[in-house]
């Protein structure tokens, strides 16, 4: 995780952060762009992408890489786990206490300074299961 000494919180950046924090859907940058255009009709897709990356690099939000699909973003920067549907790629938070022992083990078994970790569970969501023929 990169950190910047001082992040200038522009009006656009503030609105992007506020809108992302309201959502639990873990939107893509394209989805955020569609949402943000309602409040800021002149905002560009490039501005949304760039600011989501900056906020992620600063640790203010999380960027979720969901294996080959578009990255998703999470307004909750605290360590927490996600579950992703293999069929529709929906990503949701899963309420499991983060495992600090895992970080300690990684520190002991490597020469890395471990800053944080992420865990993703993969499965089939209830909607996709219901849509599947038995």
Q: Quick summary of this structure?
A:
Strands 4-3-5 form a three-stranded mixed sheet, with no helix packed on it. It has five helices and five strands. α1 (11-22) packs across α3.
Task: Please provide a written account of the structure.
The protein has 134 residues and is of the alpha+beta class. It has 2 domains: 1-71, Winged helix-like DNA-binding domain superfamily/Winged helix DNA-binding domain (Arc Repressor Mutant, subunit A, Orthogonal Bundle); 78-134, 2-Layer Sandwich (Dna Ligase, domain 1), CATH 3.30.1490. The chain has 5 helices and 5 strands; from the N terminus they run αααββββαβα. The protein has helices spanning 11-22, 29-36, 45-57, 100-109, 126-131, and strands spanning 62-64, 72-74, 81-85, 91-94, 120-123. The protein has a 3-stranded mixed sheet, with no helix packed on it. A two-stranded antiparallel ribbon has the order 1-2. A hairpin with a 5-residue loop joins strand 3 (81-85) and strand 4 (91-94). It is flat. The protein starts with 10 loop residues before the first helix and ends with a helix. Mean pLDDT is 89; it is low at 1-5.
Number of self-contained structural domains? 2
The CATH architecture of the largest domain can be named as Orthogonal Bundle
Task: Label the overall shape.
Answer: flat
Spatial sequence of strands, sheet with the most strands: 4-3-5
| Tally of separate helices | 5
CATH superfamily of the largest domain: Winged helix-like DNA-binding domain superfamily/Winged helix DNA-binding domain
Helix content: 25-40%
Biggest sheet architecture? 3 strands, mixed
At the first level of CATH, the class of the largest domain is Mainly Alpha
Distance between the termini: 44 Å
